[in-house]
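Hi R.,

Here's the chain you asked about this morning:
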Amino acid sequence: PAVKSQPGYYRMMLGDFEVTALSDGTVNLELGKILTGTTPAQTKRALARSFLQDPVETSVNAYLINTGSKLVMVDAGSGSLFGPTLGKLVANLRAAGYQPEQVDEIYITHMHGDHVGGLMAGDKLAFPNAIVRADKRDADFWLSQANLDSAPNDAKDAFKGAMASINPYIAAGKFKPFDGKTELDGLYAAGECAC
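And the predicted structure, written out as C-alpha cells:
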C-alpha cells in the first residue's frame, strides 16, 4: 500500500517496519546558553553560517514503529511541560491513523521533559496500554528524590517533570527498565544515560 504523510507526521518504510515521525511541535531554544564546549560567540558564528540566529526554533518529535506485530513508540514528546507550542503528539498520532490505546511499548531515550512529558494527559496515562521502557541508570538518576533534593534550583523542574511523567506508569505496573545495551522485541535500545 501507498505510504501517506501529512504536515504533523511523516511516514516511511524501513525494511519491513513502517516508521512514522510524529511532530509534538516546536520550541525556541537559546543554543548560546545551553551548548557546552563552546562559547556564545562561537555558537552565534556557527548559526550565522547556516543563516540562523538565537533562539533557534527546534522540532520535538517521537517515532512510531509498526513492526507488524507491535506498535512501538520512541520517546513521547513534551506534553504540557514546555509550553503551548508543543503537546501536539497525540493529535498527530491520531492524524496518522493510530490511537494512543494501540501503542504497545514506548522506549524512552532519556528522561528529559521533551522526551517524557507526553506520557501523561493531565492526570491520566496518555498511552494506557503501553509498557514504558528506559535505561535503569537513567531511571535511577531522574526518579531519585535524593537527586531532586540535592539538585540546583534551576534543575529541579527537570527531575519533577521526569517523576510526574514516569511515576504513574510505575504505579500502574507499566514501567520496565532495561540495563544497558539491550535488544527489545527486535529493536535495539542503546541505553545511554544523559544524566
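Residues 156-171 form the longest helix (16 residues).

Let me know if you need anything else.
M.
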